[in-house]
Amino acid sequence: MPAKRIIPCLDVKGGRTVKGINFEGLADVGDPVELGAKYASEGADELVYLDISASKEDRATFTGLVSRIAERINIPFTVGGGISSIEDAARLLNAGADKITINSAAVANPGLITEIAERYGRQFVVVAIDAKQIDGEWRVTTHGGSRLTQLELFSWAKEVEQRGAGEIMFTSMDHDGTRSGYPCDTFARLCSMLGIPVIASGGAGNVDDIADVLTKGKADAALAASIFHYGETTVDSLKQELSKKGIEVRL
Predict the structure, then answer these.
(1) Cα(138)–Cα(131) distance, rounded to whole angstroms?
(2) Catalytic residue set
(3) Which of 106, 159, 191, 224 could form a disulfide with 204 if both were Cys (CB 3.0 to 4.6 A apart)?
(4) 3-state class of 218 per DSSP?
(5) Cα(85)–Cα(10) distance, integer angstroms
(6) Which sign, positive or negative, has the C-alpha torsion 53, 23, 17, 167?
(7) Cβ atoms 206, 31 nearer than 8 A
């Protein structure tokens, strides 16, 4: 069984790393290149950078940032935010990104998943799925959880896989920002039905939460932000704790 991955996530706005809850109350937490280099030196397996403003006027800033990250950082990194066409994906991959992640655009145009996978390989395509429970059913949302769709989580995840996604990054919008842990039963069901890796996102409050989603939840990787940005733990300390719990990680 492959080692579980730990992936720090950096939300970027105007060329700076920011953190808030549901993209509100944003605070500047540092330079994204320097922070990424720090996390890489601490043993992060990968990084995720999300352009949370993703406006046209910010595209050049973000593309330039991706080039700087690629020059400085020696571990794989994924970029996302506002990618809605093959041209957007090409721009970021050409700037040095190892993977791209799409969410709302994949819902609006599922064929985009296949288009990117066929051109660059499915390993380049991470589809992010944000969902919340409505009357006992997991419903897919877009635009940062603000728009509810008719899609159901598990059927959409299967379709995403069939269309060529190499990985899925699932966030429960009910848990995101709460730091109260992950819906491990939902992750376990998702991971059991798919043949591609699942990254757990949103809800990490401590080491035990991450350990639970990697074991009970069967997730292949855990994404985290606040616990690293605010110095509550380091990547290497987190991995040491997971290893003590019998979870295989790269030390």
Answers:
(1) 6
(2) 11, 130
(3) 224
(4) coil
(5) 22
(6) negative
(7) no
Tokens representing 212 are 């639970």
Cβ contact 161:119 at 8 Å = no
Task: Tell me if 125 sits within 8 A of 86, measured CB to CB.
Answer: no
Query: Could you please report the per-residue DSSP string of 62-83?
Result: HHHHHHHHHHH--S-EEEESS-
Distance CA 207, CA 141 (A): 28
Q: How distant, in Å, are the alpha carbons of 29, 105, 106, 242 from that of 101? A: 23, 10, 10, 27
- pLDDT by residue for the chain (251 residues), tens only, comes to 789 999 999 999 888 888 765 545 577 778 999 999 999 999 999 999 998 877 666 777 789 999 999 999 999 999 998 899 999 999 999 999 999 999 999 999 999 999 999 999 999 999 999 999 999 999 999 987 789 999 999 999 999 999 999 999 999 987 776 677 899 999 999 999 999 999 999 888 899 999 999 999 999 999 998 889 888 899 999 999 999 999 999 99
Residues forming a β-bridge with 97: none
The bridge status of strand 137-142 relative to strand 147-152 is: antiparallel
